[in-house]
Design goal:
Elements: E1 2-6, H1 11-22, E2 26-30, H2 44-48, E3 53-56, H3 65-86, E4 90-96, H4 108-122, E5 127-132, H5 139-146, E6 147-148, E7 151-154, E8 158-159, H6 164-176, E9 182-187, E10 192-193, H7 194-204, E11 210-213, E12 236-237, H8 242-248
Bound molecules: NADP nicotinamide-adenine-dinucleotide phosphate (NAP).
Residues 6-7, 9-13, 31-33, 37-39, 57-59, 61, 75, 94-96, 113, 132, 134-135, 138 line the site of NADP nicotinamide-adenine-dinucleotide phosphate.
Length: 258
């Protein structure tokens, strides 16, 4: 099959491209750095010609509310138009577990992902929306986003992070399977409070900052309930827990053992 991976140069995209190629498919990694821009439409029709499947793992360069909404709304419309023209038979998109839950709607980024999902459902192309929990790699981003001096106030909501390798394995299987015309969930094998996981990560990399567990601390604009970030029953679970992921990650060489 010919498979176009929008965002095919990113963290998840590059791993999906590699896996699909190993399984013998013709894969086009599509991103601005490879001459395909889902926002402006540049190179989209050419990349999509003869494609059977489109996997969208692109991300907005900015997480600011309006910028993220503009990104997912405009790119979503461009992708729908291009894939209909090319006769794409399956649209696979990566989104976030909890998108659609009321507590999460206070986050502008999540509202942008909701807009992306709405366009996919309305496009008329068979689809699979993959809701993932936070990537272990993103713990660094959460800490970076929340630092104030040496104390970081973070939510006590539970999270069940997943390794990017497990995300890529799942997306590869969904891309090669039949469209479910709905949402599936993927998550890591273990859950713990967000504040505790970020503290564990900071300690592992030797970062001296301390996390203050604070039930009211917003997470990307949203005050989380205990289970806002958790998948429901029946989610596909990754195999790597924190320790397994950390040991293989590029962070391992920077700090003490997990
Ligand atoms: N982080 C998490 O914990 C988490 C959890 C659940 C779901 N997700 C979802 O996972 C997805 C992928 O995340 P990631 O961390 O792999 O992203 P990433 O590493 O930041 O990669 C983003 C990709 O999007 C591409 N891109 C940017 N602007 C584009 C445009 N105008 N047209 C086409 N491609 C464009 C980038 O291309 P260049 O290389 O050219 O810049 C890059 O390939 C996101 O949609 C996110 O919502 C993330």
């Amino acid at each position: 099959m010919k498979i176009v991976v929008i965002g095919g140069t990113g963290l998840i995209g590059s791993k999906v491209v590699e896996r699909l190629r190993k399984r013998g498919h013709e894969v086009v990694p599509a991103a601005p750095s490879s001459g395909v821009n889902a926002l402006t439409g540049e190179g989209l029709d050419e990349a999509m010609e003869g494609a059977d499947v489109l996997v969208d793992v692109s991300n907005s360069p900015s997480f600011e509310d309006q910028a993220a909404l503009d990104f997912f709304d405009t790119s979503g419309r461009n992708l729908a138009a291009a894939e209909k023209k090319a006769g794409v038979k399956h649209h696979v998109a990566l989104s976030v577990v909890g998108t659609g839950r009321p507590a999460f709607a206070a986050s502008g980024y999540i509202r942008a992902k909701m807009a992306q999902e709405k366009l996919i459902r309305a496009a008329g192309v068979p689809y699979t929306i993959v809701h993932s929990t936070q990537f272990f790699e993103f713990l660094n981003g959460i800490a970076g986003d929340s630092g104030q001096g040496k104390m970081i106030h973070l939510s006590t909501g539970l999270m069940q992070p997943i390794a990017s390798d497990d995300v890529a394995d799942a997306l590869t299987d969904y891309a090669l399977g039949a469209a479910v015309n709905g949402t599936v969930e993927i998550a890591g094998p273990e859950k713990a409070p967000l504040a505790e996981l970020v503290q564990r990560f900071l300690t592992a990399i030797g970062d001296p900052r301390k996390v203050v567990a604070d039930p009211k601390a917003p997470y990307f604009g949203a005050v989380l309930e205990r289970d806002t970030l958790l998948p429901g029953d029946g989610a596909r679970l990754g195999v790597q827990n924190f320790q397994a992921w950390f040991g293989r990650s590029t962070f391992a060489s920077r700090g003490a053992a997990a």
